[in-house]
Structures are given as structure tokens and as C-alpha cells.
Amino acid sequence: MKQQIRAQRKRMNGRMWFDATTVLVALIFFTVAWPTLHVTHAVPIAVQPFLAALAAFPVLLVRVNPALGWAISAGSGMLISLAIPHQPNNDMPMQVVHILSLFVLLLAVAVRATVPIIGVAWIATSLLLGTTMSNEGGDLASSVWGWPIALGAVVLFGLLVRWLLQSRRQLVQQEEETEVERARRAILEEKARIARDLHDVVAHHMSLVVVQAQTAPYRVEGVTPAARAEFESIGATAREALNEIRGMLGVLRSDGQAPEHTPQPKAVDVPGLFEGALRAGVRIAWTIDGQLETVPDGAGLALYRITQESLSNASRHAPEAPIQVHLRVGPIVELIVRNGATATVARPVGNGGHGIAGMQARAVAVGGELTAGPLEDGGFEVHARIPLNMSVTLDSVLLGGAGN
Q: Domain segments of the chain: what residues?
């Protein structure tokens, strides 16, 4: 938008300077034509300003309507050549200023007018000058051929200027379209960023709400039938809300991923995920070997999101099953999230997604790898390996995509 405003102001300033120059040229032509008219033509003093204006002022139409300006100048030139007698010592049927005005206006017609008008103006001007300028014993044949060639060069130069101006306008238009496309892409990338944030935050905690509501009757003693029904209602409402959120995320998601500039989770925040799942009633146990503080921000963000998604998947698809997490920090950060077989059939809490694919994308973005699959005992395991010696940035992690 700012570039468009600057471009409009630049065009307006250019037009103002062009108009000012045109007025200055017309005034110069007029101040030259009026005092010298009595030298070239025998006209009354009262008529001289009018004839000088016909010779000079049609130039003022060079930008607004060059074809009309040319018609006025050519018509007045023919009238002056045929009806106004010139001085005996003058061989020019019209003033030099008038001829210069015709040249300028013909050039403007070649730049601005349509091709048929350009052809008419070129032929008519050639005939006008070719016939009138040879009246005083000149060679009519050479005059008839000479003027079309000279005026044709003027027309060709005008067409060249026209082509250059059109090319420049097309370039400006392409730049404006590129700017619009860039703005549209930024909007799509912002939607993708919002979709990732909504999934990583809302979907994770909503899944825990569903699990907590489903397991509350088994964890809390003395639950009455009314309380059990209330827990069932809470779980159903949370599942419905989660489905609606994921439907909205499907609209917001796009292939383009934008880098984020807000503070992001790090490796030291991973234990908070375990504690939150434990508070939500998930049967989880974890071990951490090594110092999480040594994990770079990029790898730490990938580790956090992979752990978050792994716990969410385990809670959704294997409720009440125990979850074991092994996290070891060395030259390579190794994460193993394993859940056992569930004794009950898991209720669907979503309409499917791209959780494993998203975790794999995050691992690959930081030079690591991730495998996930079922175990022989009916459980499920996620195994991620993230190297610490990869020189990656936070933006590259985010560009790698998110879960679901």
C-alpha cells in the first residue's frame, strides 16, 4: 500500500513537471511568434496575437489531447499558408514556431494516439508541409518526398518512446501485482502460524480434558451416578469442541509455513508437559538423563513439540494405558514415548490428522529422524533422535511444520 501511494505521488509529480514544462514551451513559442509575425506575414497588428496563439498554444494539448492539438495546429497552418500573404523577402508560408509546434504535436500523437490517427496525422502533415513549403519556386518532388521521410523519423521516434513507456508501465504493474501477492502470501502464512499455535496449545489441553473427564470415575472414589453423568457430559462437550477446533484448523492450514518471532518453548520446558499430564490423571512415568539446558533453542523447540504431540496421541488413542518416557541428552537427544495396550476401546476425540507426519517433519527440520509404530504387546512407541551439532535456527524448525 505504501509503495502504491509513493508510486501515485511520483506519477502526479511527473505530470506536474511535464505540464509546467509544456506551459513554459508554449509561452516561449508565443513570445517568439508574436513579435516576429509582422516580419514574415503582412497582417494587421490587431490580428497578430491571435495568429501567434494559433501557432504556439496548441502545444498545451500535448498531454491532454495531442490529436486535437495537432488538428488545430495543422488547420491553422493551412489557413495561414493559403489566406495570409507573407512578406516579399520571406519564403516561409508559415512561421518556424508553427512548424516546430506541428513537429511536437505529431510526436505526441505518435506517443499517445491510436495507430489510425497516427497514420492520418503523418500523411496530412507531410502533404501540408510538402505542398506549402515549395510554393516559392522550390522543387515540389523533393519536397513531397523529403517531408514524409523527415516526419516519418519523428513518428518512429515517438513510437519508440511509446514502447518504452508501455514497458515501464507493465513493469510497474507487475511490481504492484507482486506486492499484492506477497501480502496475500503473508496472510496465508499468518493463518498457518495461528493454526499451529492453536493445535499445539488448545488441542493438547483439550485432549487432556477429555482424558481427565473419562478417567475421573475410576480415579475418584464415591462418584455418584449424577457425577458420572456430569463427567460424561464434560467429556462429550470437550470432544465436540475439539472436533470443531480441528475443523477450523483445516481451513487455516496451508502448505506455506511462516517463521515465528514470539518466545517459543525450549527443552527445559519439557518436564512441564509430564507434570501437566500427571495432574490430568494420565498414568505417566519419565526419566531424564543429561542436562536439558544444553539443548539449543531450535532442537529444544522440536523436542518440546514432538513430546507434546506424542503425549496427546497416547492420551487420545490409549486412555488409561500407562505411558513411559525416556529422555536422554548427549550428542544426540533421544526421546522414547511408549504407551501400553489399553483395556478399553478408545473413543474418537478428533477426525484424524497429521500428528505423526508433523512430528517427523519437525525432526527432519533439525537434522533428526523419527519413527513411530505399534508394539507387539499392543502398545505404541514414538522414537525420535535429534542431533545437537546441527547448526539450525528457530525459523528452520518452524518452517518444518507442526503436528496435526
A: 2-138, 193-399
CATH architecture of the domain with residue range 193-399 = 2-Layer Sandwich (3.30)
Phi-psi region of 257 (alpha: psi -120 to 50; beta: other; left: phi over 0): beta
Q: Within 10 Å of residue 391's Cβ, how many Cβ atoms?
A: 8
What pLDDT digit, counting tens, does each position of 328-376 carry? 999 999 999 999 887 654 444 444 445 787 788 888 878 899 999 998 8
Neighbour count for residue 34 (Cβ, 10 Å): 18
Closest CA to 29 of 99, 80, 91: 99
Q: Which amino acid is at 50?
A: F
Does this model's pTM top 0.70? no
Task: Give buried/exposed letters for 105-123 (b at 16+ CB in 10 A, else e).
Answer: bbbbbbbbbeeebbebbbe
- Write phi, then psi, for 7 (nearest 5 degrees): -65, -40
Backbone angles phi, psi at 332, to 5 degrees: -125, 130
Rounded Cα distance, 1 and 183, in Å: 10
d(CA 386, CA 300): 9
Half-sphere exposure of 166 (CA within 13 A, CB side): 8
